[in-house]
Amino acid sequence: MKRLCMIAAPLLIAACVAEPGKLPVAPDLRTADVFTSEGYNATVVAEGLNNPSGISFRPGDGALTVCDSANGRVVVIEDGRQLPIIEGMTTEYWKTLENGSKAFKLGPLSAVWLSGQQIAVTDAGEPDGKETVATWHISSEGAAKSSVKLRSNAIGPTTNDAKDLGEGNLSGMCLMPDGHTYYVCGQGSDVKSWILRGDANTGKLETAFSADDNGIAVNSPVQCIEWRGNLLVVYSGAGGKDDGLIVEWDLKTGKPANQWAVPGIVDPMGIAHVPGTRNRFAVTDNNWSLTGVNAGTVSLVTLEDSQDARIEKVATGVFGAVNCAFGPDGRLYVACLGKKYDSSEGLVIAINGFRK
Predict the structure, then answer these.
(1) pTM of the complete model
(2) At CA 348, angle to CA 347 and CA 349, rounded to 5?
């Protein structure tokens, strides 16, 4: 495997040069553990983020857009600069540790562009049952002029479980080809896992697919994408347990059409369809831990019609890999927590070589 080589300076990307037969040396010790397989290489395209999450690309110019979650903002990367287009969104700490300290600060977790000036963002810093999807109008004058055009309803409790406060930590949103229907992953009570469906024109948000109602015990849906007219959803399962699942939901019947186990990908968090392929996907493994950030992976996953998954590791040592998406340039962009969550060590890396 080939080591990811970066200079430890904000947004500065350097080329790796090595003697024949030797691995290049990465001077940035924070990310020196990242290795890519033969034929792939990776670079850093954004640094200094705090618990980054959703990755998307602005229509027209294809500008990389990142949910800088713990900082309560959404930024675009232009000419190597991070330009906030939305700021001041609500944040909350997701967990309270045994010592009483707060952990995993979350704000906006997912965003999809509806047009060059309209973007839908999950307001995931609100309490469960009060989270919405807000459509923002982005002014050409910058974040100070951006404003919420439309806000969806929230989704309250869907079960009689006293711990069910409603859907929260809305993440992994995808926009459908009609340009206004979207799906988003909900994190409410583990008694029932929901995929939600929304309409960006009306603001209506509703429950769509329940894994539990269809005999799927694995919960925690984290990212969904449109695929061959259906919806492909990644379920991460229990943290640190090798039980992740990819489910294809039939949008006409509302039932699971196919499902694939992904052994060796402990906590899948992101999925992206490799451009120009039928059934090949990039999948990130967060290798989840509540007490710290573990080294994760990025894999190339082929989903066979037999419901078997062929898995090839593309990169290892990727700390806190979460959401991912292919950019207009054909590279896979991966949001990473870095070696420490709730800090400014979050980054986005770009990996090329998927279309060999």
Answers:
(1) 0.90
(2) 120
CA distance 36 to 3: 6
The residues near 253 (Cβ < 8 Å, ≥ 6 apart) are none
Residue 215 is inside which H or E element, if any? none
Antiparallel, parallel or unpaired: β 280-285 and 295-303: antiparallel
pLDDT value for 249: 98
Tell me the C-alpha to C-alpha distance, in Å, between residue 314 and each of 2, 7, 110, 245, 298. Answer: 10, 22, 24, 19, 5
pLDDT at 355: 77
Contacts (Cβ under 8 Å, ≥6 apart) of 275: 326, 330, 354, 355
Mark residue 328 as left, alpha or beta (left: phi above 0; alpha: psi -120 to 50; beta: remaining): alpha
End-to-end CA distance of the chain: 16
- Both tokens of 154, joined, read 């929230």
Looking at residue 234, which CATH number applies to its domain? 2.120.10.30
Q: Which amino acid is at 32?
A: A
Alpha helices (H) along 132-250? none
Query: Tell me, what's the pLDDT at 188?
Result: 82
- For 115, the 3-state DSSP assignment is coil
C-alpha torsion sign, points 162, 53, 265, 318 = negative
Domain total in the chain: 1
* Residue 238 backbone phi and psi in degrees, to 5: -75, 140
- Tokens, residue 237: 């399962």
CB of 39 closer than 8 Å to CB of 353: yes
What's the pLDDT score for residue 142? 67
Residues of the chain with pLDDT under 50: 3, 5-32
Tell me the CB-side half-sphere exposure of residue 28, using CA atoms within 13 A.
Answer: 24
CB-CB contact of 74 with 68 (8 Å): yes
Return left, alpha or beta for 31; rule: phi > 0 is left, psi -120 to 50 is alpha, else beta: alpha
The domain in which residue 304 lies consists of 2-352
Half-sphere exposure (Cβ direction) of 267: Cα atoms closer than 13 Å:
20
The residue type found at 233 is V
